[in-house]
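Run log // design_07
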């Protein structure tokens, strides 16, 4: 298996466990059920493990930045559509700019 395949797999798993951790933490906040706290902490261990693997197989600057931006986008989307949290217009602008920053980090505009 190539390093690129491993990196993409590890980035995906980091993103999945990070999202699970965020949702469980929100459930803990909403329900005050301590079980969600412990489940969130368990998911954070896996998130950190895959983050460390991501650094091993990819660059710290690009792979972690892309993954963190995708985590923010997914978390905001879940908060807005699933938990019905309010997002201000200026925050939507920030989310849009995070998309642009991903494209800049991946050097997409230099290929045009």
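design_07 sequence
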């Amino acid at each position: 298996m190539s390093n690129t395949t491993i990196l993409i797999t590890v980035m995906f798993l980091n993103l999945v466990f990070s999202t699970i951790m965020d949702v469980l933490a929100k459930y803990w906040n909403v329900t005050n059920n301590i079980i969600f706290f412990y489940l969130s902490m368990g998911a954070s261990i896996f998130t950190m493990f895959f983050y460390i693997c991501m650094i091993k197989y990819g660059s710290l600057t690009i792979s972690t930045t892309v993954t963190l931006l995708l985590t923010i986008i997914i978390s905001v989307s879940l908060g807005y559509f699933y938990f019905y949290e309010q997002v201000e217009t200026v925050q939507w602008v920030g989310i849009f700019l995070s998309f642009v920053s991903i494209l800049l980090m991946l050097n997409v505009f230099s290929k045009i």
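The chain has a mean pLDDT of 89.
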